[in-house]
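>> Question from a student workshop board

For tomorrow's exercise we were told to take the sequence and the ligand below, predict the bound structure, and bring the output to class. My setup keeps failing. Could a helper post the expected result so I can at least see what it should look like? The ligand is flavin-adenine dinucleotide.
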Amino acid sequence: MKEYDVVIIGGGIHGAGVLQAAAAAGYSALLIERLALASGTSSRSSKLIHGGLRYLESGQFALVRESLRERAIHLRIAADLVELKPFFIPVYRDTRRRPWQLKLGLWVYALLGGFGAATRFGSVRESDWASLDGLKTQDLDAVVRYHDAQTNDALLTRAVVQSALSLGGAELKVPAAFTRAALRDNGVTVTYTAGESSVDCGARVLINAAGPWAPLVARAVEPAIAVPDVDLVQGTHIVIPFPLTAGIYYVESPTDGRAVFVMPWGRATLIGTTETPYRGDPDDVQPLPQEEEYLLAVARHYFPAWNRLTREDITERFAGLRVLPAATQAAFDRSRETIFTTDRDVRPRVLGIYGGKLTGWRAAAAHVMERISSSLPATVRRGTTEQLILRRPA
Ligand SMILES: Cc1cc2nc3c(=O)[nH]c(=O)nc-3n(C[C@H](O)[C@H](O)[C@H](O)COP(=O)(O)OP(=O)(O)OC[C@H]3O[C@@H](n4cnc5c(N)ncnc54)[C@H](O)[C@@H]3O)c2cc1C
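>> Workshop helper replied:
Here is what the output should look like for this input. Compare the format with yours to find the bug.
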């Protein structure tokens, strides 16, 4: 039976990040992915590498500060894949957040981002409103402008895996499905299926990075380990074949005031997202007709040239699942901090990653390595993830 320092379940951004961090730290690591890299949530996000402006409203300052730091790191190490974009927040007579509130928020955002060039913000002059992709100007009071970054989430995930493999010490099994794990005194025996065969391997630590499937993976560990109480919340995006060029629009839904992004996506426009509680099998998540109608209503409301849009115009649609701490309040207001769990405090054998952000994958992986360091031997480092350049995969 082959032995690894770290075995990771799930080839999304978190699994990729831990594979890279483990390889960089000098360990042997195996990543097991059931379908294809980034086939889960990590290809169905809003594709933003952002500080998360709206998390300021719920007081998640530490998260915003960390995310802005990660955004700056991405712009340096992943320049091929992550692009700073202008964001526009139009404020109409009846918009809930007024320009002064937005500017106060953006000032705090700039403070947490160290007042770097990417944190500059201001207003678009009225004489320039015509350059905003046909944005509705009736009752428009102001357009606030700031910057955040956009990526291709699936390509970013593959780039991180590529970086891990290039360091040495990292291996990939795709497609291969984790089936069960048995705890030993100082490690885990992991069983997975690859094709027709069932394979056993050993790990000092098993990392459960299975995203919305993480509770299912955790329940396949024997003896049983604690599984945190989480909710799954569905988020849908649609693509329409009409391009936007000026930047990303951050608007309030005319139906319920929730924030929605309208974003350039190649030669088309990506619109998302929704928040629908989800209780089914994570494999079955699909955009719902009412979610598509909700997003189309946003597009029609803010871009008068699109006022005849219907579901027939949608060229692509996808839904992903957020993993959030179980609670009764609206998904929008819940903490976006990643939850890390271990089977025991000292020398953990299993570590689970629940929730989190695409933006925070590198910081999450660094945290994981710190949490499991007592289970791993001393090694010679091969690299530092903050410095490793990520290249767009071919
Ligand atoms: C609608 C939506 C929009 C979002 N927008 C943003 C955004 O703009 N910016 C941002 O920073 N964050 C965003 N997020 C959050 C971000 O997308 C997620 O935090 C991140 O993608 C989660 O990655 P993950 O690796 O944990 O999970 P996943 O990407 O879901 O990866 C889990 C993987 O595990 C695999 N797997 C499952 N079971 C097994 C098994 N038994 N054996 C082997 N493999 C298995 C799955 O196939 C899957 O590939 C968004 C999330 C959602 C839902």
